[in-house]
Amino acid sequence: MSVVTLNDIVKGDYGSIYTIIWDGWKATLTLGRDGSGYLSYHPRSGYSVRAEYLKDPQDTVDGQTGPGYLGTPSSLKHRIVFWVDFPTTPNDPQDDQRFDGYFFTQTKDGMAGVTWWNGIPFGFYAKYLGDVIG
Question: Which residues contact 90 (CB under 8 A, 6 or more apart)?
Fold first, then answer.
């Protein structure tokens, strides 16, 4: 296991692109170095993303520690938390869908975790596709 860095998450100068699947839904996730992003679900559907990178399982993000955290501290910095604005209400971040996951520490080419919809947890995973071309 090795520490995850921002260069592992966002490999390109302008961002990185991931294929993401949650509960059978498939989309493209773009992540920028500044924590901004975009989720493209359909050629005509896109949603804003905001993210927090390089967190540990014990770190509290919006009142929650990492999913599955059982009290063992870690300094791998491999946790990512991001929110997708599915309702397209940019002035109301409270209705955004939260995704809380962990980057792979060996290959550093993907992540897996949990998302919630209507209070029900669902699994997700994402795989690195390439860099955003400037």
Answer: 48
